[in-house]
Amino acid sequence: MSRSVQRRLAVQERNSGADLQPPVLPRHEEVDLLLKQSVKRLELGFMDFLELADEAIQGKFHERFGFQDASEYFDQRIGFSYRTLCRRMAVLAALRGLPPGQMPAAREALAELGSHKSSILAPAFAKEPADWQEWVDLARGATEEALQDAVSSALGHKARGRIQPGDAFWNYIVAHTPPERHEQILWVVKKVMEVGDTRNGIAVFLYMVDIMERELGAHGVVRDG
Predict the structure, then answer these.
(1) Beta-carbon-side half-sphere exposure of residue 177 (alpha carbons within 13 Å)
(2) Is the whole model's pTM more than 0.70, yes or no?
């Protein structure tokens, strides 16, 4: 084979290889993709953690290490909140309620959705296991709030969530507080709205501050000036 033919073949091979190379993404899109992939790996790893945690709880392994109950074991020895663990266990229970052949696909799908949407979907999976794929499809294109409303409606529950549409202040407060306190917060804020005859979130907050200042004054704690 002549050298000229060899060179042409080498060029063709390089060009062919270049065609197979994936397109170079802008850095922000590359990081975005890597973050999503990392979250999925974390979620899949956490599901493995849930499996082990459930085995430890069912087997009462905490007693082998001198703990009276599982909550102390996880909080103190494992270093993970037992309260958070119990909330997330609902996802594991939902997966176990699916036909065995569908569990791997559902596990991957929930990992892609992330912990928040997975936790919202868990009760729907438990009630309607045959429709899990439809719920996942809905979750992919829905906000967490819209998804929660859909799940609550399907389960016949009152919709959870906001104080009133558009009240960003209290929506933010509720979103950043433990779920087990939401009902209490919503009840108190709504009652303050009734007593104060206002629907303005900031006004309600200031009204609550006034109440607390009077309460502190009754205990001898008074502002200077």
Answers:
(1) 15
(2) no
